[in-house]
What we know:
Layout: H1 2-10, H2 14-28
Amino acid sequence: MIGYRVVTDWLPLLPGALVLSALIRAKVL
């Protein structure tokens, strides 16, 4: 299952991506 592998690979990166997007929004605003 390629989709399952992609999900398991991206799960650890999700918190970092959320923090990064929050920082970008804070800088823009």
